[in-house]
Amino acid sequence: MDGRYRKNIRPGLQVEVVLKADQRSGTRTPGVVQSILTKSEFHPHGIKVRLEDGSVGRVAEILQDD
After folding, report:
1. pLDDT at residue 65 in the model
2. What global pTM score does this model have?
3. What is the Cα 63 distance to its own chain's centre?
């Protein structure tokens, strides 16, 4: 599924995000979505989320879908 659309993301999903500090390198960080921070339905660089460990980044890929 596409991480650029808010409708595809919900708390509890396993995702890979690109943290602000990693935007240049594109390094992905895996984690579980705690909350969705982007209010719009679409963002070209990925929906911004907070992971359960507290880190914040944009969804690059959704790893697990129930």
Report:
1. 65
2. 0.92
3. 10
Report residue 60: phi and psi, to 5°.
Answer: -95, -35
Kindly compute the dihedral angle of the four CA atoms of residues 17, 20, 26, 32, in this order, to the nearest 10 degrees: -10
For residue 58 the two structure tokens come to: 């944009």
Distance separating alpha carbons of residues 65 and 12, to the nearest angstrom: 10
Q: Rg (Cα) of the chain, in Å, rounded?
A: 10
Per-residue pLDDT of the chain (66 residues; tens, 9 = 90+): 889 999 999 999 999 999 999 999 999 999 999 999 999 999 999 999 999 999 999 999 999 865
Beta pairing, strands 14-19 & 28-36: antiparallel
State which CATH number among 2.30.30, 1.10.10, 2.60.40, 2.40.10 fits the domain covering 6-62: 2.30.30
3-state secondary structure of 15: strand
